[in-house]
């Protein structure tokens, strides 16, 4: 069966394209990224936009043959420059959830962009900055078209992630009908229940 790419991989590709355009005025299309295990997939851009002070790129998620509810979703990333020393700041745009309960690997109030996708995006921002002379200080806003509606079919409402989807992925690759992905979802639910004193 055909493998696909996680929302985290798609967001990283869109981030890379948007930040490149912010520094060079040109969007790489397709845009290639490097995943944690060394794969280098290329992603076609579905949308792109550049204006004073920001650039936006969007990628359509391809989950391969997995029955993933986010298959076909449009993952948008808007990148804005920040003052030197600000680092990389993540924001939840429309369709991306916010953490409202303890027990998840993110603090309450944080955008539901998981640690590995954050690491991937930071690494690619640093690479683009080094290549084109940027500072690497940026605000990254991830949005998913219809994400709030899609999220109703996921565990997010029960996990206390409100307002939309999570940006997920540990390897960047979606393995069809993966047992490990299902088990990881159950563990997240147990962690949230334990943090709430329900176990």
Task: Describe the model.
Keywords: Cobalamin biosynthesis, Methyltransferase, S-adenosyl-L-methionine, Transferase. InterPro entries: CbiD, CbiD_sf. The protein has five helices and 13 strands. It has 199 residues and is α+β, with helices and mostly antiparallel strands. It has one domain (4-189): CbiD-like (2-Layer Sandwich), CATH 3.30.2110. The strands form five sheets. The chain has a five-stranded mixed beta sheet. Strands 1-13 form a two-stranded antiparallel sheet.
Summarize the amount of helix as a percent range.
Answer: 25-40%
Mean model confidence by pLDDT: 91
**Which radius of gyration do the C-alpha atoms yield?**
16 Å
Principal-axis shape equals globular
CATH superfamily: CbiD-like
**CATH fold annotation:** CbiD-like
User: Could you give the distance between the termini?
Assistant: 38 Å
At the first level of CATH, the class is Alpha Beta
Q: Characterize the quaternary organization of these chains.
A: single chain
Query: SS-based structural class?
Result: alpha+beta
Give the strand order, joined by hyphens, for the main sheet. 4-5-6-10-7
How many helical elements? Answer: 5
């Amino acid at each position: 069966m055909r493998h696909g790419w996680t929302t985290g991989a798609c967001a990283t590709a869109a981030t890379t394209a948007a930040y490149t355009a912010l520094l060079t005025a040109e969007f790489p299309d397709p845009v290639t990224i490097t995943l944690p295990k060394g794969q280098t997939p290329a992603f076609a851009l579905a949308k792109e936009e550049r204006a004073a002070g920001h650039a936006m790129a969007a990628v359509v998620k391809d989950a391969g043959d997995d029955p993933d509810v986010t298959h076909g979703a449009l993952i948008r990333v808007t990148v804005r420059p920040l003052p030197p020393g600000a680092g990389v700041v993540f924001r939840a745009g429309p369709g991306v959830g916010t953490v409202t309960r303890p027990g998840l690997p993110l603090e309450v109030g944080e955008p539901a962009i998981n640690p590995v996708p954050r690491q991937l995006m930071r690494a690619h921002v640093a690479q683009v900055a080094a290549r084109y002379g940027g500072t690497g200080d940026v605000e990254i806003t991830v949005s998913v078209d219809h994400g709030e509606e899609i999220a109703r079919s996921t565990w997010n409402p029960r996990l206390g992630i409100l307002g939309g989807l999570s940006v997920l992925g540990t390897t960047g690759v979606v393995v069809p009908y993966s047992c490990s992905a299902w088990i990881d979802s159950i563990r997240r639910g147990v962690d949230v229940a334990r943090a709430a004193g329900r176990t």
